[in-house]
Design brief:
Elements: H1 4-25, E1 39-41, E2 50-52, H2 54-62, H3 66-76, E3 83-89, E4 93-98, H4 101-113, E5 127-131, H5 144-161, E6 165-172, H6 177-195, H7 210-223, H8 226-229, H9 233-258, E7 265-268, H10 269-274, H11 277-287, E8 291-294, E9 297-300, E10 311-314, H12 322-335, E11 340-346, H13 350-362, E12 370-375, E13 378-382, E14 385-386, H14 399-406, H15 408-415, E15 424-427, H16 428-432, H17 439-459, H18 478-488, H19 490-500, H20 504-523, H21 531-555
Parallel strand pairs: 5-6, 5-11, 6-7, 11-12, 13-15
Antiparallel strand pairs: 1-2, 2-4, 3-4, 8-9, 9-10, 13-14
Length: 563
């Protein structure tokens, strides 16, 4: 679990500070405390591999102009097995050109690390809960849940890869108004099915989807209707909801499984009410002085914590609100030992963020423990037009519709192409095209191409398992060195993506790695007469394959050996 780039930067920092201390001891500059040394990678290779602005930042306190200070530091920097040369550039930057041995060592490290390559320890085992999708269980998952699913699952995978202890959770809203509405919808369809369409007018504000009718038909097919047609309506609703809710939840589990998601826990809102946790959390807020009574309702003083308005906890009918249960749920997460809570919500819930963070602060649990990622909407595009209606059902596109149309890999990759807070158009035609313009195809094809090369060489009698690391120094061409450097950045990319909670950094990086590989492949043959060079190139592409496979594993897409 080594961050190859960080290791190099640390070595350069050590070298710079050593030079600075030497200059201070010799009286070449005023003896002052050094500021932190920042190392950046250069944009162009003619400026070296890495650079620092340390001389610019220290010039004033050191009593020298930046270029003069940079020159003194270069004189005092001792020999380094890593740094081949260093030079002063511009107003006082120091550019470092590294010995190529660091790249060869990286290939060796990758080949030894295998599935562990890219893993970092920045998370320090911190316990994190990622809650995502949490779709209403009264109907099928719609396309709006697809982006959250791809983002949440990839983010949790990323955090685990970066050294956190991340869990995935689905919060099932099986209580409250939406379940009552579900019950009314099922009951009305039951009556229409048993006594005829005219027996009851279907409520305008009920759920009108085909799934309600299907659930009622399956209920009657399984249990018949004689026992239930004269039953007390409240009791009948209970039976209908229990049957349909269980079916819907199983469908949610099947759909998320099809999407490549396995949750660590499905947490039911009803558990909070049954255990008394909702009532208890409201009482605790009241005891702390953060509630008041108005219009026969109990309100939380959310405005004291930055929210635009206060929010109801208990309605006038003495029933707790969804928000009250949500507070209890987040309290429950913290009580289970989670140090950081990450929720993925639609952008239309932005007003809910300050209220929830405020409630946790009011409870003394720390609102800063909650991070909410707000997702913008995605437009599905097909044949240049907005795609809204499923050909199969004639209704809104569901998650399963999308997966049937383009597949899980394309859906997951495309939904992570942009940061969550950006709008974008999802080109469904591009997602299924077998061309280099399709980013997921481009990345998977790189992995498959490497597998094919290795397979063909093996069939021709070449020992592709031989790892003679001394031969790596034969990799001297730009395409080879650029490719090694590109894959060396993987651990740093993981760390950056984890710290910013942004898996889209990895999709961009994956495309970049694939591009570097395809450039190498088009310029250099792996099978050459020089056996040692061939072995070196075999080791290089095996390292690229490891990198791509680990990358795709985080994103939850397959790494095919053939396409």
């Amino acid at each position: 679990m080594v961050n190859l780039i960080k290791k190099v930067k640390e070595e350069i920092i050590k070298t710079v500070l050593s030079g600075f201390e030497s200059a201070c001891e010799k009286g070449l500059i005023d003896k002052v405390e050094a500021c932190p040394v920042e190392i950046e990678n250069t944009k162009e290779k003619k400026f070296g591999d890495f650079a620092t602005n340390f001389a610019l930042k220290m010039s004033k306190v050191a009593g020298k102009n930046p270029r003069e200070l940079a020159g003194i530091l270069l004189e005092e920097i001792g020999e380094s097995s890593l740094i081949e040369k260093a030079e002063v550039a511009g107003p006082g930057f120091i550019n470092f050109f590294l010995n190529k041995s660091w790249l060869y060592n990286n290939v060796m490290y990758i080949l030894k690390a295998k599935e562990n390559f890219g893993k970092v320890t920045v998370g320090n085992g911190k316990k994190v809960m990622v809650e995502f999708i949490s779709a209403n269980p009264t109907g099928p998952m719609h396309i709006g849940n697809a982006r959250g699913g791809a983002l949440g699952d990839s983010l949790a995978n990323l955090l685990n890869f970066a050294g956190y202890s991340a869990s995935k959770e689905f919060y099932v809203n099986d209580y409250g108004n939406q379940i009552e509405k579900f019950a009314v919808s099922l009951n009305a369809r039951f009556i229409q099915k048993v006594f005829g369409e005219d027996a009851i007018e279907f409520p305008e504000d009920a759920y009108h989807g085909q799934d309600i009718i299907d659930n009622v038909c399956e209920f009657i097919e399984k249990y018949g209707c004689e026992k239930y047609k004269d039953m007390d309506e409240t009791e009948r609703k209970k039976h209908l909801v229990e049957f349909a809710l269980n079916k819907n939840i199983e469908k949610l589990k099947a759909d998320t499984g099809l999407y490549g998601i396995t949750y660590d826990r499905w947490f039911f809102e009803s558990e909070l009410h049954k255990s008394g946790a909702v009532k208890k959390v409201i009482e605790e807020l009241s005891e702390r002085g953060y509630t008041y009574e108005k219009d026969e309702a109990t309100w939380f003083k959310a405005t004291e914590f930055g929210s635009e308005k206060d929010v109801v906890l208990i309605r006038g009918n003495n029933l707790p609100t969804y928000f009250a249960a949500d507070i209890a749920y987040h309290k429950n997460k913290i009580e289970r030992g989670y140090e950081t809570l990450i929720d993925i919500w639609g952008a239309d819930h932005h007003g809910h963020v300050a209220r929830m963070q405020g409630a946790l602060t009011a409870l003394g649990l720390g609102g800063d423990k909650l991070t909410v990622i707000l997702m913008q909407l995605v437009r599905l595009m097909k044949n240049g037009e907005v795609y809204k209606v499923s050909k199969r059902s004639g209704k809104a596109v569901t998650l399963t519709d999308l997966l049937e149309d383009i597949g899980t890999d394309a859906a997951r990759f495309f939904f992570n192409l942009r940061q969550a807070n950006t709008h974008f158009d999802f080109d469904m035609d591009l997602a299924v095209s077998k061309s280099n313009d399709n980013p997921v195809f481009y990345v998977q094809y790189a992995h498959a191409r490497i597998s094919s090369i290795l397979s063909i060489l093996s069939e021709e009698g070449v020992d592709v398992s031989d790892e003679a690391y001394d031969y790596l120094t034969l990799l001297k061409d730009d395409e080879e060195l650029d490719l090694i450097e590109k894959i060396s950045w993987f651990p740093q990319e993981v760390e950056d993506a984890a710290l910013t909670l942004d898996p889209s950094k990895l999709t961009k990086y994956a495309v970049s790695v694939a591009s570097s590989f395809h450039t190498f492949y088009n310029a250099k043959r792996v099978k050459v007469e020089d056996t040692k060079l061939m072995k070196a190139r075999i080791m290089l592409i095996k390292a690229v394959k490891i990198t791509l496979k680990n990358l795709m594993g985080i994103l939850g897409i397959t790494a095919p050996d053939r396409m």
